[in-house]
Amino acid sequence: MEQVGVQPRILSEAEPTVMLVAAGVVDVGFAQRVKALACTAPLHDLDGRKAQVQSADFTVYQMSELALHTIDAVTLAMDFDTGADPERVVGDVAAQAAQQAPDRPPPEHQKVARWVLENLINVGSADRGFRAVYGLTASDGGYRTYAFDFKLLEEVPGADGEIYLRTTNEAVNVLVGALEVDIESAQIAADLRLETLIRRGRLSDAQAAAQTARYRTIQYGELLRQRLEATGRDVRSVDWLTEMPEFLDEAVGHIEARYKAENAILTNITNIRDTADTADRKRQAAQLVEIVRECLRRHEQLQAAVQLAGRRFRAEQDRQTFTAARAGATLDLHAQLLVPVLELSVVAADLVLATYFVRSTGTVVPPAVRLSDLFCGLITPPTEREMLGGEVIAPDLDVIEPEPPFPDECYELLEELLDLDPEAPRRLSGLLEAARKMHPCLGSLVVIRVLALAAQEIHAAVRHGARDVLMAIDDGTPLEDHEFAGSDLIVARAALIPEAEEGAA
Predict the structure, then answer these.
(1) Per residue in 457-482, pLDDT tens?
(2) Would you place residue 228 in the very low, low, confident or very high pLDDT band (cuts 50, 70, 90)?
(3) Fewest beta carbons less than 10 Å away: which of 76, 354, 436, 493?
(4) 270 near 287, Cβ under 8 Å?
(5) Which of 307, 296, 148 is nearest to 224 (CA)?
(6) 8 Å CB contact between 34 and 49
(7) What is the C-alpha to C-alpha distance for residues 233 and 27, in angstroms, rounded to an integer?
(8) How many whole angstroms separate alpha carbon 280 and alpha carbon 346?
């Protein structure tokens, strides 16, 4: 008997929940673990691709650690209304890169930080997002694949016209090591854990728990901000009848409970800081005080946003209600209504015509709509038009062959001229003089080639195992020439010594 296989198909990220319920899959936790693993894949990918960078040697840096520092810096720097300054984030990450490789120059640290930031934003992709494909086995034995689309960092415009960075919910989950958990429950658990650790005097563990609690606070405010932004785009996309009032009530209760818990925690930490008998313990307690105060500050921002949420909804509702609606597409009465109706039975045609006339002559009546106008429109045949449109006369254009910038023989002469002895470097002025004697156009080609040599990177030649490289060096001597100006570069062929031979020497 022939075995019938199940063809996998990729579904969207929002579809798996419905399919899991329909198919009776019970291992939903497996999908959550796979998606949690997918959120960390871009960080590990940085370490896998750092050796492929051609412009510099990034192999000495721990890119996944720098990526975590980047997400952490953006999360802590962004507020409810604005995000994090990209240049400030680059500076913070560059400082972390300097700790990993203190012998490297500061410009390289800045370059590494910017490379990590651009990869977390996923610059170069169409939607600047990441996609992970995973599969689940249903109860009927079929295997279905799903696409999980997510982002880690987003570039958002600010009110002042600047571009800021914001972390997504997936990025915050990477920091706290969780995925799709209830924010309120996680916040309560984090506060209880923090209070217990402080009461037991375990300040090192308490500091990690406090940082996790701060991330959850930021995540809660980010959820409210996203819903308010969706309201600004379309008030109908957010349920302001039941869902948002319940959410705002929960937010007010959340703020009240957090204020009580964190003020009590702050009192205990302050007492420990003031009565600490060692400098290390006093320092840890002081850091905890700053973290809890940061949580209280973000609660104040969240409270202000909750208080303004209702006013913002009413303002957006008024603005969008009185915005002029888009004009609908015109209807071809003859081709789209009369001809199809004539092919129907009387009962079916009556239903179609009744539906059309009810909607076309409803409570909002278009100007000058009369039965005679509709009748004339129905019986008037459309204007005969060519199926493919009018004939387009091709213009008579002269074919012009593009001329090459330099003759082919110039390139051969250039290779001959730059075939230098490693022991005998030459000046650009001498090369120009010899080039003009060989060919009238060769001087410009020599200048272009020498300028390219002055800007080239030698690291690529070293990695490819080249024995020598042609290079141009500026020693400050001005060029004295009737056609070109600048520096009289030294053009030389330098030998590349491998590291093994260099160490042996």
Answers:
(1) 777 777 777 777 888 888 888 888 88
(2) confident
(3) 354
(4) no
(5) 307
(6) no
(7) 37
(8) 91
The widest CA-to-CA distance across the chain, in whole angstroms, is 103
Give the residue carrying structure tokens 């002269």: 398
The number of CA neighbours under 13 Å toward the Cβ of 60 is 14
b/e for 429-440, b at 16 or more Cβ within 10 A?
bebbeebeebbe
Token output for 171: 């990025």
Report which of 41, 42, 62, 40 is spatially closest to residue 50, judged by C-alpha positions: 62
Residues listed for the chain: 505
Q: Which residues contact 502 (CB under 8 A, 6 or more apart)?
A: none
Domain limits of the chain?
A: 10-175, 181-320, 408-504
Task: Give the burial string for 283-312 (b: 16+ CB within 10 Å, else e).
Answer: ebbebbbebbebbeebbebbbebbeebeee
Instruction: Look over the chain and give the mean of its residue pLDDT values, rounded to a whole number.
Output: 75
Q: Tokens standing for 341?
A: 């109706």
How far is 222 from 233, CA to CA, in rounded Å? 17
Residues paired with residue 491 on neighbouring β-strands, in sequence order: 426, 472
> What CATH architecture is 181-320?
Orthogonal Bundle (1.10)
Contact 191, 258 (CB under 8 A): yes
Contacts of 166 (CB under 8 A, 6+ apart): 74, 78, 83, 84, 153, 154, 156, 222
pTM of the model: 0.43
C-beta separation of 472 from 454 below 8 A: yes
Average pLDDT over residues 208-229: 72
Output the six-digit token pair for 195: 């209070």
Interior angle at CA 308, CA 306 and CA 314, nearest 5: 120
How far lies 447's CA from each of 164, 420, 494, in Å? Answer: 42, 16, 19
Helices of type H across 58-168: 63-77, 86-100, 106-121
Spatial CA neighbour of 26 closest among 138, 141, 180: 138
* Surface-to-core class of residue 469, CB atoms within 10 Å of its CB (0-12 exposed, 13-18 middle, 19+ buried): middle
CA nearest neighbour of 433 among 448, 454, 449, 447: 447
In angstroms, the CA 398 to CA 392 distance is: 18
- What does the alpha-carbon distance between residue 130 and residue 149 come to, in Å, rounded to a whole number? 6
Residue 13's pLDDT is what? 42
Q: Using CA atoms, how far apart are residues 314 and 339, in angstroms rounded to an integer?
A: 47
